[in-house]
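Researcher: Next sequence.
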Amino acid sequence: MDLRETDEQQMLRTSVAAMAAKYGHDYLIAKAKTGEKTTELWAEAGEAGYLGVAVPAEYGGGGAGMVELAIVAEEIAAAGCPLLLIVVSPAIAASVIATSGTPEQRERWLPGFATGRTRMSFAITEPDAGSNSHKITTTARRDPDGAGWRLSGRKYYISGVDETEATLVVARLEDAASGALRPAMFIVPTDTPGMSYQPIDMAITSPERQFTVFFDDALLPDDALVGGEESGLAALFSGLNPERITVAAYSNGLARYALRKGTDYARDRSVWGAPIGSHQAIAHPLAKAHVEVELARMATTRAAWLYDAGDHAAAGEAANIAKYAAAEAAINAVDAAVQAHGGNGMSVEYGVGTLIGAVRTARIAPVSREMILNYIAQHTLGLPKSY
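Model: Next structure:
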């Protein structure tokens, strides 16, 4: 593995950064405060081909991979205007459909992902299941009249349902004969009768909202099922590594933005005749955070490279490591930047206090720090299962 980016990857990084710089953190905060969406930024990123960079070329995408999509996610976040829907739509949903969808599903959905015209949310979490996906109770059963599938259940903390055309729903198939349940995934258009949603009041400053989603005997056609009746688990896992990788990239970008704000302030702010950055109490936390962020970025690149190479076993471990490292690095970077600003760090004007909730969330979602440590302990270190 060569950690040096190709000329094409460097050009992609530079181009995305230049585009995102036209928007910035003030744009994001203004949208969040007024309840608007980052429509303009998403549209420009889509038209430029950035959102579809990992979609196969035969469907109009860039034909690249997760390394390139991680670059896109990171650079947009590094401008202070992260797009959470990159994680759920081009990373999870598009990856699942590209790898596990039927030819008809690929033809229907992937061209829209390639341009950013199609946005799809992802629904796995449930109120009573938490991180235990084996406890998912959202269930699909055959319609008794043979019209397709009937989906019933409830999902929790689902991002951006109000701005997506469909939701990729993780459910369980009910075997009519045995009553046994097995994983399955369905594409559910947002206007499906029997599907409804309500917002969750969050303490995070973000234009992208969280929802509880309800399925009340929602009727789905046969072709809503992704991956077939026996391959739901494989289809699900094809989206989880891209999810972790792009969350890591998103966190790395936010960390870089925070460090830039913190170091600029420490360089310019003068107290007692000297810039505050000349004092180790300010400089060392920022320097330490920079080291941690660079390590997290390398871990993210490695995870994306392994995924693109098709080494899914190694990519699973690497993606978890990258997500863990990036979340911790981002939290520390934002904390150092806020502390460097002193009281100004909690002012919206200076653009760092508004990041606290965003980076803190990455320690919890899409998989918690503790569950990652459980995974590493069991699968990497060979320790007994602890849960």
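Model: The CA atoms of residues 265 and 341 lie 7 Å apart. The mean pLDDT is 95.
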